[in-house]
Specification:
This protein is of the alpha/beta class. The chain is 57% helix and 13% strand. α1 packs across α3 and α9 runs parallel beside α12. It is globular, with a radius of gyration of 20 Å. It has two domains: 61 residues, lambda repressor-like DNA-binding domains (434 Repressor (Amino-terminal Domain)); 221 residues, Endonuclease, Chain A (2-Layer Sandwich), CATH 3.30.870.10. The longest helix is centred in the middle third of the chain and has 25 residues. 39% of the residues are buried.
């Protein structure tokens, strides 16, 4: 495994641990600058990997990218997803209400406002705002990465998930003022209308279908790069706030896992509504809840 890959794993697991870089560096007996250099891909000794794994309460194999990676913090999951997307040429997504790379400015704006309002109402406002700013930065980085790389995207959205978004709005469940909640509801409608338009027009490199007859039991993403493929399974939607959501996301590059998820995704795509039929159904859902 390349040291750059180990560095990426280290950064993601540091975020997962909830420890500050200064804390980890102090316990490791190195400077914060040295820790950041490790994260950027500087050569790291096996003994240092072992000690870092102990501090982060993970297996050394996890830092080496062997086996399954687990993330219970949305912010750590988003960072690891961003890292994998850096090398992805193909994205195949099953389940959920949106494919984040294709979301509108209205979606991003509503998420930012809702998260910020919720953070300001938190008992630890400073920490909550810092986490919110970091998470919003990760989402922005993912969107910019997609615009620069333009991987092909095939997404099969779930009708049930889309209905919930239209009913409850973007970033549902957060303690926000009524004006923010109304903006989130409006953003959900705008997003659904954008999805219908993309289904109809089929932009270059983007195909979106709708799983209408059978709702995906659990969402996942298959990301394929030149040298490696990953399967990402997570309960965290793009609008899950940094300090919200209970669940565990998992990531693996195991060949059998990739192959199994690929087969399921291909079958879901065959059975999904597409094109004008999919767009018509989405617009019908909008009218039902409009």
């Amino acid at each position: 495994m390349r040291f750059a890959d180990i560095g990426q794993q280290l950064r993601a697991y540091r975020l997962e641990s909830g420890l500050r870089a200064e804390e980890i560096a102090a316990r490791l007996g190195v400077s914060r600058a040295a820790l950041y250099r490790y994260e950027k891909g500087e050569v790291i000794k096996l003994d240092t990997i072992r000690r870092l794994a102990e501090l982060l309460k993970i297996s050394p194999l996890s830092l080496l990218g062997i086996g399954v990676e687990y993330f219970s913090r949305p912010i750590a999951f988003q960072e690891r997803l961003r890292q994998i997307e850096e090398g992805a040429d193909q994205i195949l997504m099953v389940g959920g209400a949106v494919c984040y790379q294709t979301t509108t400015d209205a979606y991003d704006g509503a998420v930012a406002e809702a998260w910020t309002e919720a953070a300001d109402a938190s008992t630890d406002r400073v920490a909550a705002r810092a986490a919110t700013d970091q998470m919003l930065g990760l989402l922005t980085a993912r969107k910019k990465l997609h615009q620069a790389r333009r991987p092909t995207i095939t997404a099969i959205l779930g009708e049930g998930a889309l209905l919930r978004m239209l009913r409850d709005g973007v970033a549902a469940g957060l303690p926000v003022p009524e004006r923010t909640r109304q903006r989130c509801l409006a953003a959900a409608r705008t997003e659904a209308e954008s999805i219908a338009a993309m289904m109809e027009s089929v932009p270059i490199g983007v195909q979106i279908g709708l799983a209408s007859a059978v709702e995906p039991a659990g969402g996942f993403i298959v990301l394929r790069g030149r040298d490696r493929a990953h399967v990402v399974a997570s309960p965290f939607t793009p609008d899950t706030p940094p300090q919200g959501g209970i669940g565990v996301g998992s990531i693996t590059a195991a060949d059998e896992a990739v192959a199994a998820h690929q087969r399921v995704a291909e079958a879901a795509w065959r059975d999904s509504l597409k094109g004008a039929a999919a767009a018509s159904r989405v617009r019908e859902l909008i009218r039902e809840l409009g």
